[in-house]
Amino acid sequence: MKQPNGAKYTDRLEAQKEAKQAMLAKFKPKPMIQAEAPINRAAEKAAELEAVRAARAAQREAEREASLQRQQDELASKRAAIKERKARAAAEQRARREARYSARLSGDEDERKILARLLAGER
Prior knowledge:
mainly alpha
């Protein structure tokens, strides 16, 4: 009986199949190292944006408080100046009244001289 040629042909088919499998194995994705927790870039960006917004809000609040404090200081200094001016006017009015009273009592001194002496701090 004649030897079938098929044995060699099947060997060639086997070799072809193995070569094809080896080629396909090259293109298969290799297993990657997985991170413990997936990186959520959107959450990171949102957190960073929130931090920047909070810092800006804090800065605006500090500027607003400083402006308010400055306005209160200016108002207090104006009030103090008004009080001082009123006190000075009241003291001058009191001195004039005392000068008139003293001039009436003494009769010989001029009212203007007495007023000058009282304003100078003498009694």
